Amino acid sequence: MVLMVGARSAARASARAVRTARAVAAAPQAVREIAWKAQHRLYGRYRALIRKGKPKTVAVTAIARELCGFIWAVNREITTAGAVARPWGIR
Q1: Helix, strand and coil in the chain, % to nearest 5
Q2: Would you give per-residue pLDDT tens digits along the chain (91 residues)?
Q3: Is 91 inside a domain boundary?
Q4: In this structure, is residue 25 part of a structural domain?
Q5: How many CB atoms lie within 10 A of CB 20?
Q6: How far apart are CA 55 and CA 35, in angstroms?
């Protein structure tokens, strides 16, 4: 359900809202780049699927699947950065 809501949000045109600027600024640079790339790709993919005549539910489901990949990329970036920042054995 959460992925479907995120996919519907990604189906809208990408813009940086003023109210979310602080939250975006708090994220690491690599995560911000992945998120911006995801927003552009998912929006374009949704529009392409709709242009091809796919039902909205099918398009949103496809976007949700791709969103999983971007979530994985962000998680991998965070865990790799955390592993580099901490010496072995210290938690």
Answers
A1: 75, 0, 25
A2: 677 777 777 776 666 666 667 777 778 888 888 988 988 899 999 999 999 999 999 999 999 999 999 999 999 988 887 655 555 555 5
A3: no
A4: yes
A5: 10
A6: 26
